[in-house]
Amino acid sequence: xxxxxxxxxxxxxxxxxxxxxxxxxxxxxxxxxxxxxxxxxxxxxxxxxxxxxxxxxxxxxxxxxxxxxxxxxxxxxx
Length: 78
Description:
mainly alpha, 2 helices, elongated
């Protein structure tokens, strides 16, 4: 059994990053379902793809800027 355990904050960060994929795919699926219901295919699917891509990329950029650091912080004098 390994003795090195992953930092729970870092694991939480990776889980949050994995949710971005769902944020990108959900608007496409929702647009597809509404398209079929309202008989507007493919316009809402295309709109959902654009919205999901833009929102997911924006969230990805924000998340990567907030990546937790390994080791001591830069403020501490060690």
